[in-house]
Amino acid sequence: xxxxxxxxxxxxxxxxxxxxxxxxxxxxxxxxxxxxxxxxxxxxxxxxxxxxxxxxxxxxxxxxxxxxxxxxxxxxxxxxxxxxxxxxxxxxxxxxxxxxxxxxxxxxxxxxxxxxxxxxxxxxxxxxxxxxxxxxxxxxxxxxxxxxxxxxxxxxxxxxxxxxxxxxxxxxxxxxxxxxxxxxxxxxxxxxxxxxxxxxxxxxxxx
Length: 207
Hints:
By secondary structure, the protein is α/β, with parallel strands linked by helices.
């Protein structure tokens, strides 16, 4: 099971996450308590292994600004977490993760409209788009197979429930931010437990 740790703001957290098996790191450029500026993100990204996905998170941003931030920071995947259209999402040369808020089965009807590489399913919108620590009803996904899309499960995941989420949704990747924090800061021990528990589910299923 692949794991993305989102809301990275310092090099020690980034390296610790990678050492413990993270496959992707998220850098938030939208309004958020985890927002980072492109130059600071670039300093971190330059220290990271090439194979790790460096994901930039944006909400209703212009294409020109996204491309400028990508150039400065060195991100290699774009996550669009706002009201971006399918046409906008397909206009980039970078791989794109389109985030969709899921509150009911009807919200999944828009999946087929997007042709991007990844679809991230998150909980309903709170104060911010994502990072609100609330999960949605994973059983919804049993009736709506993702077919060929690479689905990323997000929203309310933490070390204690990530295994349950994986078994329920069978995602390509799981994504966590607030679920591995203590008092608003990334907690290395929670990150390790989250990754260990996520990877363990896949190992158990393979037996």
